[in-house]
Design brief:
This protein is mostly helical. About 75% of the residues lie in helices and about 5% in strands. Strand 2 and strand 3 form a beta hairpin. It starts with 8 loop residues before the first strand and ends in a 9-residue tail after the last helix. About 50% of the residues are buried. The model has no long low-confidence stretch (mean pLDDT about 90).
Length: about 625
């Protein structure tokens, strides 16, 4: 049976997305909801090419993917839900959308809007805009969604605040309390809502309930942000406790200053990032970003965006990091903040590094280092030199690796930044690994691991732990190596560093192989390859060949000659693809690295043997 074209469509986006056709609920895919949400907010005609770039850039055929989703939406919601005009589309006029109603009501300042209309606006909001909707394969849309959530959150706070003030002025305490409770529910860390509730409860003669509300607010602030209530909130509590009615009347709920909420959230996100709690860090950053955006605090917005990008880079998601870095850099340039722009340049270099574009990597790093030196900013300089060292490690140039890491370490020490100092010290361990100076490497790794553990630097601890596993293989202790690789894998699995787990699994496969456990080696190597295939961009392309080579070694040991040769070819192809764009001297340097020689020799001889580190 076909869909009745006369039935109206209702889309609700101010909360978890919901759709109705007539009286019937309709379920839609996440990508369909993303397209509808964008068209619902933009309203005007949108060119198909722009929609392809926004939502389907990762598809093999973006225009076909867009056409399929347009057809899918029309099948479920009716032929008139989307209108065509040349090469552009828009949402049809018969579609009723809650966010459009909300914005129509708020087309004037809230002070000029009639109370019934404001109440209608408040009733439309069930939660965050497009709550729980996210697309990992569409970073530009994800960034747009972040901005829209910040905008609607700010509008919701203004509506509820105005309704509270009007109900309070008319002494309609029950209504005032209902809106104050809604404000606290939507923004639990915003002290203004708690202050409203305390004043209203006191006016209703519920002084104990008002004091209980203070206790809840204090506990929440301590648990979520690690801070104490503001002086104003404490002053209001004291006035209530001592029944000072005159003082109570004089304490007005102040708009939360950015430093009392957004900065706390941002600092909390930094703490979570350091503890490798990346998902929780992103949630805090989104909230902080919304507060900064609501106050047009562009410096705060930029700082949130760049830490979001850092989280994505750490998790091996350069495509998600790129648009955030680009937007942060533009904001820093608007604010004439050269040092922060240099930080963004070094992070953009890291994006290029993770995709294997070494020419762009070195160009942006050189620019970032020059700006950092000119600005005398040792923190930015240390970070840029750390990434510089990683880039030199990628092309296996140990001399330049050591020089960049040494310069970065000196800058970090001048800036008294132990985290950056630890990262630069770790790169010096990388130089020792490349030179196969095992005794010096072991001393460096053990000291570095202890220091990283003392700072709770979970990211660095995981890398040192993996190095301990490699050293155990050097010392012919495969069972001990397996334990270290187990620990590194578990740490990365818990933190969401999915990409880095591929290397942990590849090395653990080699440890199993050295221990005579061929089945376990093949299982780990196969899983590592599967994870490698699941990544759109492998974050360490100069290591991708080693994952494939570990798989080839395990397959050969299991007697699977044909699949082993296929895995070897894949390893060799990945290596040749990486070195092809390099200048001749760097290409020779990279191919001379002992792990890469292991691949080229096996490919030339047609004989696959287990890796020997000594």
């Amino acid at each position: 049976m076909g869909i009745d074209a006369n039935l109206g469509v209702r889309l609700e986006l101010l909360g978890a997305p919901q759709a109705q056709r007539g009286a019937t609920p309709v379920k839609l895919s996440r990508k369909a909801w993303a397209l509808l949400a964008y068209l619902a907010v933009q309203r005007a005609m949108q060119h198909r090419r722009a929609l392809c770039d926004l939502l389907f850039s990762s598809s093999n055929d973006p225009r076909e993917a867009l056409r399929w989703h347009i057809s899918y939406i029309r099948r479920h919601l009716g032929p008139h839900i989307l209108l065509n005009q040349g090469d552009a589309i828009q949402l049809g006029q018969r579609c009723d959308v809650d966010c459009a109603q909300f914005e129509h009501i708020l087309s004037r300042p809230v002070e000029e809007i009639a109370t019934p209309n404001l109440q209608d606006a408040a009733a439309l909001v069930r939660g965050e805009f497009a709550e729980h909707l996210a697309l990992d394969d569409a970073p530009e849309f994800d960034l747009w969604l972040l901005g829209q959530r910040a905008r609607y959150r700010s509008l919701r706070v203004r509506v509820l605040d105005e309704l509270i003030q009007r109900a309070t002025a008319s002494r309609n305490w029950q209504q005032a309390l209902r809106y104050a409770t809604a404000l606290t529910h939507h923004e639990p860390l915003m002290e203004r809502g708690h202050m409203h509730q305390m004043r209203i409860l006191a006016a209703m003669g519920q002084r104990e309930a008002a004091l209980d509300q203070f206790d809840r607010a204090r506990a929440l602030l301590r648990r979520e942000l690690g801070v104490s209530p503001s002086a104003e909130l404490i002053q209001l509590r004291d006035a209530l406790a001592h029944q000072r009615s005159a003082a109570l009347a004089s304490i007005e709920p102040a708009v939360d200053p950015i430093n009392s909420l957004a900065n706390y959230r941002h600092r909390r996100a930094e703490q979570l990032f350091a503890a490798a709690a990346y998902t929780e860090a992103l949630i805090e950053l989104e909230r902080a970003y919304a507060l900064y955006a609501a106050h047009s605090a562009t410096a705060g917005e930029a700082n949130c965006l760049r830490l979001m990008a850092q989280v994505h880079l750490t998790r091996g998601q350069p495509a998600l990091a790129l648009p955030r870095l680009q937007q942060a850099r533009e904001l820093y340039r608007e604010n004439h903040d050269q040092s922060s722009e240099a930080w963004c340049l070094s992070a953009l270099a890291q994006v290029h590094l993770q995709s294997g574009d070494m020419a762009a990597t070195f160009a942006q790093l050189n620019q970032a280092i020059a700006i950092a030196k000119q600005a005398c900013n040792d923190v930015v300089l240390a970070r840029a030199q750390f990434i510089h060292a990683v880039a030199w490690q990628a092309v296996r140039n140990v001399v330049n690796l050591r020089a960049a890491a040494t310069d970065g370490l000196a800058a970090a020490q001048r800036a008294h930044d132990p985290v950056l100092a630890g990262r630069c010290s770790y790169m010096l361990a990388g130089a020792l690994w490349m030179e196969r100076r095992w005794d010096e490497l072991e001393a460096n790794v053990r000291n570095g691991l202890a220091e990283a553990q003392s700072r709770n630097d979970a990211w660095l601890v995981a890398w040192y732990v993996q190095n301990m596993g490699r050293l155990a293989l050097v010392k012919n202790q495969p069972a001990e190596a397996v334990k270290w690789f187990d620990q590194a894998f578990a740490m990365r699995q818990d933190s969401g560093e999915f990409a880095s787990t591929t290397l942990d699994l590849a090395w653990r496969a080699r440890a199993h192989l050295a221990n005579g456990q061929v089945a376990s080696a093949l299982e780990d190597a196969t899983e590592a390859t599967s994870r490698l295939d699941a990544l759109a961009v492998f974050p360490y392309p100069w290591e991708a060949q080693h994952v494939s080579m570990a798989h080839a070694e395990a397959l050969a040991a299991a007697g699977q000659a044909a699949p082993a040769r296929k895995a070897l070819k894949r390893a060799h192809d990945a290596l040749m693809q990486f070195v092809a764009p390099l200048p001749a001297d760097l290409r020779a340097c990279c191919l001379g690295y002992f792990l890469n020689r292991h691949i080229t020799r096996a490919f030339e001889r047609g004989v696959i043997e287990p890796l020997r580190l000594t």
